[in-house]
Design goal:
By secondary structure, the protein is α+β, with helices and mostly antiparallel strands. The protein has a domain of 120 residues: Immunoglobulin-like (Sandwich), CATH 2.60.40.10. The protein contains 5 helices and 10 strands, in the order βββββββββαβαααα. Strands 2, 4, 6, 8, 9 and 10 form a 6-stranded mixed sheet that branches. The protein has a 4-stranded antiparallel sheet with strand order 1-3-7-5, with no helix packed on it. The protein is rod-shaped and about 190 Å long. Keywords: Coiled coil, Membrane, Transmembrane, Transmembrane helix. It comes from Nicotiana attenuata (Coyote tobacco). Belongs to the VAMP-associated protein (VAP) (TC 9.B.17) family.
């Protein structure tokens, strides 16, 4: 399956950062398919963010909004760079599925089911009146970035384990998958506690893992495409066989009709022959019943003889 089930607008979460104030961001999910789609939102920092709703059902060709609220923070991160990540998972479900039926098992790829996963990064921007400027075109402001000031949220982040994937409401979910492999504890740990070589190694490992996952997804898509092509060829072969069978049945029906006509003609010819034979027998019997007489009748001969004798006698005298 190589198409998007859900379109996400916007693709990034932007929060206006103000110390000791909450900030919210609304994301819209658009169902681009003809099926009912279930979604689930996860994050690497479930205690820092609140998502409502974090699960739901989107009807075909419809949309659904969820709001992400960032809890109040005492100070901004260094250079206004936030390492938090979000993951939006979506998959096709039955039409009768309701929100209470959604579980973490629905988004498991173990059974070969297609699950769309979209990673979203967090961008922090300063309010217009703030002296700390947000990054513009990759260049940060030269103003103080609060690097040297200790923050309680950094201490708290050190105690958060990134070995297990969490839902946005703080409840643990399944441990496998693309999201967990991409974001580990070392990546969530503040930048000040990591040295550059270690960070480079972790980035290389992360890149290798993402590359391996992308290759696996590409192979899965190719396998699905090949399977779909084979199914289409099989359907074509079945249709051709059905067409040939229908042609044979039609020819067989025509042959049966022809044989029936010839049989009827043969019966009619036999009846005609029998009728002619009966007429011939009748004519023969009538002709044989008549007696044929040859020569003159006896009375005629006697009469002629008598007349001849009388006439001779008269001539003699």
């Amino acid at each position: 399956m190589n198409f998007e089930l859900v379109e996400i607008v916007p693709r990034e979460l932007k929060f206006i950062f103000e110390p000791k104030k909450q900030s919210s961001c609304t994301i819209r999910l658009i169902n681009k398919s003809q099926n009912h789609v279930a979604f689930k939102v996860k994050t690497t920092s479930p205690k820092k963010y609140c998502v409502r709703p974090n699960t739901g059902i989107i009807k075909p060709r419809s949309s659904c909004d969820f709001t992400v609220t960032m809890q109040a923070q005492k100070a901004p991160p260094p250079d206004m760079a936030c390492k938090d990540k979000f993951l939006v998972q979506s998959t096709v479900v039955a039409e009768e599925t309701v929100e209470e039926d959604i579980t973490s098992a629905m988004f498991s790829k173990d059974d070969g089911k297609y699950v769309q996963e979209n990673k979203m990064r967090v961008i922090l921007v300063s309010p217009p009146s703030s002296p700390v400027l947000s990054p513009i075109n990759g260049v940060h402001s030269d103003l103080p970035s609060y690097k040297d000031s200790p923050r309680k949220d950094e201490v708290r982040n050190e105690n958060i384990s990134g070995q297990q994937e969490r839902d946005v409401n703080g409840v643990h979910s399944h441990s496998g998958g693309f999201f967990e492999d991409s974001f580990t504890r070392d990546q969530v740990t503040p930048r000040a506690n990591r040295n550059p070589p270690q960070e480079l190694d972790e980035n290389v490992k992360e890149f290798k893992k993402e590359n391996a996952n992308m290759q696996m997804e590409e192979k899965h898509v190719q396998l699905e495409t090949r399977k779909h092509g084979e199914e289409m060829e099989l359907v074509k072969d079945v249709e051709n066989m059905k067409y040939k069978i229908s042609e044979l049945e039609r020819n067989l029906s025509e042959a049966k009709d022809t044989i029936s006509k010839l049989t009827e003609e043969r019966k009619f010819a036999a009846q005609e022959r029998e009728s002619l034979q009966r007429e011939l027998v009748m004519l023969t019997s009538k002709k044989g019943g008549r007696k044929v007489r040859v020569g003159f009748p006896l009375l005629y001969v006697v009469t002629v003889a008598f007349i001849s004798m009388v006439f001779g006698y008269l001539l003699h005298y």
